[in-house]
Amino acid sequence: MKIAAITLLLLIMLTLAFALRSVSRGTSPRQTARALTLRVALSLGLFLLLMAGGMLGWWLPHGR
Asked: Transmembrane stretches, by residue range (predicted)?
């Protein structure tokens, strides 16, 4: 699960960089909005993954 969380963080950073690049180049606002929408969806997915992992005990050893 840690690999999934790290992968999601990297994807979030990548989509944010893509949105920044499209804003700085002055391309269509639709591309920027699409990249930012994807970033929000990935952030929400990461949050839900972390919440589920915390509730199900995926992040802590079983002895705690």
From this structure: 35-60
